[in-house]
Amino acid sequence: MENSNNTSELDLMRQQMAAFKQQLEQQDIVNERLLSESMKKKMSWIKAFIVAEIISLPLIMLVLILAKSIFDLTWWSIAAMAFMCAFDVWWDYRINIQCMKDTDYNRDNLIYTTQKLLDMKQRRGVQMCISLPMLIAVVVCIGFDFNSGSKAGDTEAVAIMIGGGIGAAIGIIIAYFIYRKMQRTNDELISQIEEMTAE
Prior knowledge:
It is a single chain. By secondary structure, this protein is mostly helical. It has helices at residues 2-71, 75-98, 110-149, 154-198. The radius of gyration is 28 Å and the shape is rod-shaped.
């Protein structure tokens, strides 16, 4: 009698252990899914920003052509600015969208994903260090180009150049804040992955 009680208790304990194991596996699956969705959500604003850049690129080219005819700028300065804009958008796409795939957010790839996120941060830093001085140089050249070929009177030309300079400075500040926010997003994702892998 005692032996059959022990056997039934063992069977009951096995069933409970199997049920507990299944619950833990389901919990891991839920945690993986939540982690994946959380990481995708955090990166979604970056993807939306890059898509907006891509969509606005033709409009920027149109504005540059319009600026050429209004301010009598040379084609080389407009072409240099168009190239800078297109190159920067291409670089943003390569770093922020093409680099990360949906499979990178799976639990099996988290160490690889962390490395990709660190690479993204480094590439963004290189991009900022190269693009920003080039952009400033192109804007200064456009300013000289405008000044040398200006049809406007002296006060009007000075006002336009001051307005352009202020606009360029505001644009650079905004670009810097966007860059910092992208870097912070990567930092948040990396710490989220580190917390998940530490468990």
